[in-house]
Amino acid sequence: MTATALRDVSAGLLDGTLPVAAAEPMTPRFLCEQVAARSYFACSFANVTAFDTDDGLVLVDTGSFVLAEPTRQLLRRTIAAPARVAVWTHGHVDHCFGVDGYEREPAAGGQRVRVIAHEAVSRRFARYRLTRGWNQAINARQFRTGVQFPSEFREPDEIFARDLEVRHGGRRFEVHHALGETDDHAWVWVPDAGVVCTGDLFIWASPNCGNPQKVQRFPREWAQALRAMDALGAEVLCPGHGVPIWGAAAVHRALDDAASLLESLVDQVLALMNRGARLDEVLATVRAPDSLISRPYLAPVYDEPEFIVRNLYRLYGGWWDGNPAHLKPARDAALAGELAALAGGSARLAARADELAATGGADELALACHLIELAAGASPGDPAIRAARAAIYKARAAGERSLMARGVFSTAADEPPARLFASKPGNTV
Predict the structure, then answer these.
(1) Residue 318 region, left (φ>0) first, then alpha (ψ -120 to 50), else beta?
(2) Among 299, 248, 321, which Cα is nearest to 402's?
(3) In terms of C-beta density within 10 A (0-12 exposed, 13-18 middle, 19 or more buried), how is residue 346 classed?
(4) Burial of 4 (0-12, 13-18, 19+ CB in 10 A)
(5) N or C, which end of the chain is more exposed by having fewer CB within 10 Å?
(6) Can you tell me the distance from the alpha carbon of 290 to that of 179, in angstroms, rounded to the nearest whole number?
(7) Helix 383-398 vs helix 346-358: angle between axes, to the nearest 10 degrees?
(8) Quick check: 72 and 66 in contact, CB under 8 A?
């Protein structure tokens, strides 16, 4: 197969001629190209992979609730066969929308697309309906956008619990469930094309396995799924985000490295937990191997290893961090008021926070955030403290590499402290 734009991007990232920043998984490239025999890849915010059969297309994922329609149009510039089957890799809203667009096409002949998904997808949709406001709030922080979270979802037509073989139009598709980024995740192997569709188990970034604002993720089982994919000897890897990887050796290395990163974090965390370590000690001790985190497809540009460590501690040890004062803690505003009084006033705390932030060091900025939160909690109406808080969090955001950390800190810079603390009479110093 001749070189293509997507192949050139992939090769440049793998050999280091393109900077890692070019691998940002959230950047839609809006390119659609053939990646293997009768196999097509539409590179969007969340990707869609299409397989041509003797009876129309089998799609792996169908697009974002925001970009599904332009992604469909992108795919249609390359292949016109009607969509007959859609396999969702999971129920995140950037992967499971847009089915109706394919069903409205004249070529569909009024035939409904058969949507296949894991049995937990419908439970996810039910949870989304219960927590729409919460999802709206956390996505606003994470992505810094006001796009409304959806309230209606297309339910799958066929569900499976573990593994499923789909035969359609003379081709065979192996669908495998895996705990990973979600509890409803699946990956797809297409043997006759040598293509593995990973969903979000591979996204050209450090695995999204520790998102601080989302429900539980499963690093150990995620690594096992990557190992299972690696054992197939795929010639092409089609990820949930980012560009494909071509060549069995390159696919192996990417899957092996991603699994090794997760396994290292799991092993380190469990070793410390089995000694009874608190979360603070675990966070201070566990490190992602430099040889892995430096890979262009494992860069911490979205999630980051520290968040994965926290997620592992929660998974195996619960929400308590081991500090007895944190089991039933005082309210933030009460603690802020007491410490501000001991320090000689909120202004003293804010001044010290400014001094620390001025050094520009990551550790000092982290400490400055603690102090400015205390100052703001004790005196939420003080405009000087509000201004200092905004400046400190802007500086903190500027120094972060992962989108998640930048989103949270940038949002904090814009929020009035009064919104964050329960203001009670007598807590202003």
Answers:
(1) left
(2) 299
(3) buried
(4) middle
(5) N
(6) 26
(7) 30
(8) no
Model confidence at 21, pLDDT cuts 50, 70, 90, reads confident
Looking at residue 324, its amino acid is P
Coil, strand or helix: which one is 213? Answer: coil
Angle of CA points 114, 118, 123, to nearest 5°: 105
User: Considering only CA atoms, which of 25, 341, 411, 400 is closest in space to residue 199?
Assistant: 25
Q: Which residues, in sequence order, are CB contacts of 422 under 8 Å at separation 6+?
A: 331, 332, 333
Exposed, middle or buried, 17 (CB in 10 Å: 0-12/13-18/19+)?
exposed
| Alpha-carbon gap, residue 116 to 155, rounded angstroms | 9
Virtual CA dihedral for 255, 261, 265, 267, nearest 10 degrees?
70
* Separation of alpha carbons 348 and 382, rounded Å: 13
- Which of 425 and 409 is assigned the larger pLDDT? 409
Alpha-carbon distance of 218 to 211, in angstroms, equals 11
Helix/strand/coil for 328: coil
pLDDT single digits (tens) 318-369: 999 999 999 999 999 999 999 999 999 999 999 999 999 999 899 999 999 9
**Residue 167, pLDDT above cutoff 90:** yes
SS3 26: coil
345 contact partners, CB below 8 Å, separation of at least 6:
429
Length of the chain: 429
Closest CA to 241 of 46, 70, 23, 408: 46
* DSSP classification of residue 184: T
Q: What is the pLDDT of residues 53-77, one digit of tens each?
A: 999 999 999 999 999 999 999 999 9
Average pLDDT, the chain: 95
For residue 112 the two structure tokens come to 């409904």
Do residues 248 and 254 make contact, with C-beta atoms less than 8 angstroms apart? no
Q: Which of 193, 194, 161 is nearest to 175 (CA)?
A: 161
CA nearest neighbour of 40 among 68, 59, 63, 13: 59
pLDDT by residue (tens digit) across 247-264? Answer: 999 999 999 999 999 999
Report the predicted TM-score, pTM, of the whole model to 2 decimal places: 0.94
The pairing of strands 83-87 and 56-60 is: parallel
